[in-house]
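Question (not urgent): is this output format expected?
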Amino acid sequence: MSHLTLHRHRERGSTERVALDAILDDVLAGTLSTVVDGEPWVVPMLFARQGDRILLHGSTGAGALRHVAAGAPAALAVIAVDALVVGHTTFDSSANYRSAVVYGNLTPLSDGDRTTALDAVSERLIPGRTGEVRPMTRQEVAKTSVMALPIEQGRFMTKVRTGTASAPGEETDAWHGVVELRTVALEPVAAPTSTTSEVPRSVRDFASARVLA
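Got this back:
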């Protein structure tokens, strides 16, 4: 696939599966892209990697999701921006990031696989939560479209940029360096309709694992 070939900074690209899995297992959301009636279509989605497939879900009433479920080619892109790289000029400034793009055709899951897949997505986001709440009802599962994007060699690429600002090729007094960025969890806040103020263990564990050190 020609679009998997990098023309600049080829050293930042990789088609190694271990690099892809590391990014997919760290990032919570991505953008799913396809073409609908000759027009580009992109939607942000939560996802979960389960072995050699990526699980995505949405409402059965979403027309574009039905389009990709019918076999239209699609691409999922994910990115994490880890730092702003402040160069001695704006031209030399950049960012440290980890990104991945996976291409393929999505397959709708059968009724028997759908509930398990939805639980897998929930556990990917907040591990342990499915054991604290009631199971999804048949009606809820029926209203949800669940699809799998296969991870196949030759149909994905990762790209990573790390390091500090490039050394100036000229005399300058301008400061240059790196500003690291982090996504952190704040204190959980109960909804007004919650009958208990006690934060469940799954939410406590999720939040405490993402407190800024």
